[in-house]
Amino acid sequence: MSLAIVHSRAQVGVEAPAVTVEAHLANGLPSMALVGLPETAVKESKDRVRSAILNSGFEFPTRRITLNLAPADLPKDGGRFDLAIALGVLAASGQVPAASLDNLECLGELALSGAVRPVQGVLPAALAARAAGRTLVVPSANAEEACLASGLSVLAIEHLLQLAAHLNGHTPLAPYQASGLLRTCTPYPDLAEVQGQLAAKRALLIAASGGHNLLFTGPPGTGKTLLASRLPGLLPPLDEEEALQVAAIHSVASQAPLTSWPQRPFRQPHHSASGPALVGGGSRPQPGEITLAHQGVLFLDELPEFDRKVLEVLREPLESGQIVIARARDKVRFPARFQLVAAMNPCPCGYLGDPSGRCRCSTEQIQRYRGKLSGPLLDRIDLHLTVARESTALHADPESGQNSASVAAEVANARQRQMRRQGCANAFLDLPGLRQHCPLQADDQRWLESACERLNLSLRAAHRLLKVARTLADLQELEHISRAHLAEALQYRPAAG
């Protein structure tokens, strides 16, 4: 047969669109043409495939070979199509049966010896192959990752010869059995290790229960970073769909190998990070820190030290839960449903309001320092808390009932109420959901409106305040929001201007 078709998958963001590799042999001068909008790395696959076929003991056809990667308008890059191209050439030349390729999808880069090397973004391709009902052929190094897509039949190979022997019926390959190496979770730091700071621990409980954003302000050494690092351990475990989303993101990110699953990510970029480092970018768009923090926590320490333009790029994903990276010929959409936790000092020296009286910052310096943060960004942070200095006793007993396990149980109970009622955490309620699930008594409504007027709060801030009050009611297992809940929520919202 002079025509063969092999199925494969491209990588576009965190998606894996189908690519059909068509190989055709025709009479004429020996040549090999590759069409279908291939990038440079794909064009170079012609030489890799030729050497791999010859060094594996097969005959390379001395005919006019045309290889088409369809659809033609989808850019293809990387070496992930090498294995599919080699199979297409072998099938078109009759060295492997073409009919055996109908139910397979192939990913893998070929070495000149015919060995199969691992590629990035295998998990999104595995999920797509499972949905298509096909068996996925991957390099052995990627097999464990592909098996995270439960119910998928995976064939793991180390050399082109193995796959050819399987297709020819000489040495059939058994489906790969996952060892569970990627399903190992490192325990999160325990909240009991934080000395004192009852108000901050209360804020962490509220933030975890409703998915709210949180800002800690206080002098150096008060435990702001310590508190923030405990938040992932308070959040409910990921369900399978969420865990696969997180794993798929880390699968396509070259700088973030998939090491443990299913854990909520905790990302802590340095304040020198650029805008593309946070939101993602590049000629071949890669996920940034906000996407790597999807379904987890993004912690920004020393918040005013970040470039203001960098912080402003967070405003849209904080509202929409996604980021769209636009390029001249395409748009790539990355998920970014993260929980923001930030920490900052109250002034340039860090000691404004400290009982020691060490602060010597002028009013102008303080205003300039705080002016690095825009009002719209601060408006999107639900809980603002001042963290004061605690006792310097090094061996104080931890507060009873304040370990991560006990707090996580409260959080889980509150989240379950929210999921039963509205299907999402309170922080993600839209305006119709807010009206439906956060009704107030007429007196409480007037009281809240008056308070927002006195504090000069925006409508967005008022809505976020109402969501925090809803979370406080859920923590007490109450159906209705009371004025006490509104009053406590107001304590976490500073006056504007």
UniProtKB/TrEMBL annotation:
Q: Which PROSITE patterns match?
A: MCM_2
One Pfam family recorded for the sequence = ChlI
The record, for Gene3D superfamilies, names: 3.30.230.10, P-loop containing nucleotide triphosphate hydrolases
InterPro entries membership: AAA+_ATPase (IPR003593), CHLI-like (IPR045006), MCM_dom (IPR001208), Mg_chelat-rel (IPR004482), Mg_chelat-rel_C (IPR025158), Mg_chelatse_chII-like_cat_dom (IPR000523), P-loop_NTPase (IPR027417), Ribosomal_Su5_D2-typ_SF (IPR020568)
Is the ATP-binding keyword given for this protein?
A: yes
UniProt-annotated stretches for the region Disordered: 262-285
The protein's UniProt keywords, in alphabetical order, are: ATP-binding, Nucleotide-binding
Any single GO molecular-function term of the entry would be: DNA binding
Q: Which residues form the MCM C-terminal AAA(+) ATPase domain?
A: 286-387
Q: Which family does it belong to?
A: Belongs to the Mg-chelatase subunits D/I family. ComM subfamily.
What's the protein called, per UniProt? YifB family Mg chelatase-like AAA ATPase
Q: Which organism is it from?
A: Aquipseudomonas campi
